[in-house]
Amino acid sequence: MIKKAAYILSVLLMYLVSPHLQGQHQKLQNQPYADQRQFHLGFTLGVHTQDLILTQSGHVSEAGETWFSEIPRYSPGFTAGIIGDIALNNHLNLRFIPSIQLGDKQFVFRENSSGEEYKARVRNNYLSLPIHLKISASRIDNYRPYMLLGSYGSVELASRKGEAIRLKPYDYGIELGIGCDFYLPMFKLAPELKIGFSLIDILEKERIDLIDETLHKYTQSLSKASQRIVTLSFHFE
Fold this sequence. Notes:
The structure is a single chain. The chain is mainly beta. It has one domain (2-18, 40-236): Beta Barrel (Porin), CATH 2.40.160. It has helices spanning 2-16, 19-22, 216-220, and strands at 39-56, 67-70, 76-87, 92-96, 99-111, 117-136, 143-158, 170-183, 188-198, 222-236. Strands 1, 2, 3, 4, 5, 6, 7, 8, 9 and 10 form a ten-stranded antiparallel sheet that branches. The model is unreliable at 15-25 (pLDDT under 50).
């Protein structure tokens, strides 16, 4: 779903910035002074997928087992937030978008020799605090494509103990994205696709919370886990 949305959005942006479109006569513009506001608010809704880049440790358990793990498929999550936008000049905006991200990750562990499998689901609900620099092209009639770059910090709202895998309650990294502003008569709508890359290892290795000792082998099978989140958002401003 995310890949298909990304393809559609990319094709749309290429069309909007094509020389043919720029050469057309200008149409009547909706909200002609919208970009002259020094500061404005909005809200955002979207879907996302939470992924992890896993590094296997090759650990051999006391029973002689070697487990490997993967996240074979992505589960869609929900994103909602508030937009605070400050215009720096005609083409640059500084944006702060505190958001709630509700989602999960589904692990599959396989033993190297026997092929035995163990599945684990980790729920992660984050409060994300990103800061973006929005770089916009010139407005074309009622459209304006843009790209963004920035960083984020996130805090987990709740964490379940006693699971086979547990992630650290905090994370930070960088975000990159593209989008397009559509100027409608009453408001501005912007579909946006972005990807976030964690800069730290978020795997919790000290598992004093584990009561079931047999679950330690799954945590020990990994040496590192870095988060990657792909988000398709719709901004209303």
